What does this fold into?
Amino acid sequence: MFCYCTQLTDVDVSHFNVENVKDMYAVFVYCQSLKEVDVSNWNPKNCTNMGWLCGECISLETFDASGWGMEKVEDLNSMFSNCSNLKYFSTKNWSMESAKNLRFMFYGCKSFKKLDCEDWNVSNVTTFDHFMAHSQMEEYDVSKWNVTSACTNLNGIFHSTRETYIDVTGWDTSNVIAFNQLCDGMWYLEKIDGLETWNTSNGVCFAEMFHACGSLKEINLSSFDTRKANTGTEISTNGSLSYGLQDLFTGCSSLEKLILSENFTRFGNGNIGSEYYAYFPTP
It folds into this structure.
């Protein structure tokens, strides 16, 4: 609707009745001069697609969607991708029960520090690919998330965020193919609980999973099965390839304890080159 209105600084859509709108794809995408938009009265209760809604709105600072009906939304791909100045965004009361695609949803939101997502119903989500990567998010709670076997991609879900503690206990990862860059660049992460409950038997890529997690002292991978890890398989919806177990622990400079299972092999499926092996950090 306002796609590529790069000079637009103000727009009044507060009176819009969007109750019957089904598709909001890229409504404000690349509105790079827009700082604020009042959508607090919107109720998109029948919308299924909000992909790229405000993607690349690099000047956007506030977006109040706290009262939105989100029960039918399936696609939130890159909804606020690279909204680097977004400071206030409320997701209070979002149900997310139909959501399937959360890839790049908050990618690059470098000014947004807290995400109220603890009560989200993510049972139907298939991909979290780079969900909040490079956002520098400091506070989020995913301990209640009901990640199910519907999920196939956890690629970069927490990449470069600044949270110090994560609890992922009980996530059903039995069908996940991509684990690469899961916690890549999380220098401030001190503890992660629940990895020992994960089923990684279908995982083909674990590359850079804990790369540069310089504050982690213990990693418990006692249930991890890496025997299918390989190279060359396109596993990420952004087109990247898998790189086996390359740089899995590189940069874990504070690591004191690493617990592995009998099904963890640093050589993956045995056919990958040595550059893609998992090398253990030296004390």
Notes: The longest strand covers residues 218-221. The chain has no helices and eight strands. Strands lie at 62-64, 88-90, 165-167, 191-193, 218-221, 231-234, 241-243, 257-260. The radius of gyration is 19 Å.
